[in-house]
Amino acid sequence: EVQLVESGGGLVQPGRSMKLSCAASGFTFSNYGMAWVRQAPTKGLEWVATISYDGSSTYYRDSVKGRFTISRDNAKSTLYLQMNSLRSEDTATYYCTKDYGSYFDYWGQGVMVTVSS
Amino acid sequence: DILINQSPASLTVSAGEKVTMSCKSSQSLLYSENNQDYLAWYQQKPGQFPKLLIYGASNRHTGVPDRFTGSGSGTDFTLTISSVQAEDLADYYCEQTYSYPLTFGSGTKLEIK
Alpha-carbon distance B53 to A107, whole Å? Predict the structure, then answer.
């Protein structure tokens, strides 16, 4: 059974940093791209970033480019999202997703990130 | 960026009725080299994470009931629920995976009378 478990969220002040983690199990992590998708409170879904199966390629939405870094540790089957210079508009539930040809075929439960002073 | 327009924003139906919702993209999602449309549909029930329903415009993901059907090509796509069940109460989103940045529609909220 595929499982994706996010951690690392919480309350953070504007301008500060936070790192999210996603522990994956139930599939061969090193064979698949992974992604982060977020959802602001009462809003729709928004793709954030994608990383290829081996970490050699990464893609970001413009609003997080230069501030967020997606990375992975295939030995630990773990995905990360380093978020710097956080803004109030980054407040959202962040979902870790398994990438299936850019479709997201499995999702974690999500972790809430609140950016507020 | 490819823009996705979903409609209607919401709809209310009775159990057993047929439902259709639309997704229109600002440019074609058909990749000519493999004749595949890069469009997916997701279902998000209240308080839950989203789940993949349909990929490649018309392929059901594992375990998705056959009352859910995706159709369309190019720029116009439809999700049909042949006979709505109470458990289908949810928000439905389409997503284009043709090019980065990946983009979602704003969603259709399905309510059951």
Answer: 12
How far is the C-alpha of B50 from the C-alpha of A47, rounded, in Å? 13
Contact B64/A at CB under 8 A: no
pLDDT digit string, tens, across residues B48-100: 999 999 999 999 999 999 999 999 999 999 999 999 999 999 999 999 999 99
Q: Residues in chain A with pLDDT < 70?
A: none
Distance CA A66, CA A108 (A): 25
* B46 lies within 8 A of chain A by CB: no
User: How many C-beta atoms lie closer than 10 Å to residue B62's C-beta?
Assistant: 6
Q: What are the residues whose beta carbons fall under 8 Å from the beta carbon of A66, sequence distance 6 or more?
A: none
Q: CA–CA separation, B43 vs A5, rounded Å?
A: 20
For A31, half-sphere exposure in the C-beta direction (CA atoms, 13 angstrom radius) is: 5
- Contact call for B100 and A59, based on CB within 8 A: yes
**Residue B40 Cα, gap to closest chain A Cα (Å):** 7
